């Protein structure tokens, strides 16, 4: 009977209810941070998977041998996916000079403009993909220390209870110490997934941005080649 009562008194819910307001506040803060980070983890996972799927489909279109203008026209003037955005940016800039003679200074201005616009698209898309990752970094870094604060506070309360009651029996102080250690456990439970997915998503974003930069370089080579042919044909 006593063992059952002890098990009940050390349940997670009972540990929270028995904790003082400071430790409860720490637990609630960590729980909210964990829920928020998991929301970002799930949302970012779906978003990155969608981006990679769209990129694979777009690369298949490029491999089909269709003209870049035809592919750009298919995606419209304001595509939402990153790769079509880069292509439309280039084809829109080039279309302004289609059928016109271009001087060398105009050609340099065109290349500079296209390069600047491509970099802007890549920077904007990178910022959108990285949105929310800073919160994962904060949770991963701060949660263990917040949990440790709750643990230290709880242990102080346990020692205070020992001093006031004059009873050092383990059964007397075990609930208070368990409450304190529970705060650390919640802190680690919030920090570990945030740390893992922060690093995982950072690597995935870096790889995707690298693919965007590679495609932008290919587009710049295409524009340079077309421009060179136009100037040579004058």
UniProtKB/TrEMBL annotation:
Q: What is its main location?
A: membrane
Transmembrane domains' residue ranges: 21-42, 133-156, 176-198
One Pfam family per UniProt: MotA_ExbB
Could you tell me the superkingdom of the organism this chain comes from? Bacteria
The subcellular location is: Cell membrane; Membrane
- Keywords associated with the record: Cell membrane, Membrane, Protein transport, Transmembrane, Transmembrane helix, Transport
Which InterPro entries does this one have? ExbB/TolQ_transport, MotA_ExbB_proton_chnl
Describe its membrane topology.
Answer: Multi-pass membrane protein
Task: Tell me which residues make up the MotA/TolQ/ExbB proton channel domain.
Answer: 113-213
Q: Which family does it belong to?
A: Belongs to the exbB/tolQ family.
For this entry, the protein name equals MotA/TolQ/ExbB proton channel family protein
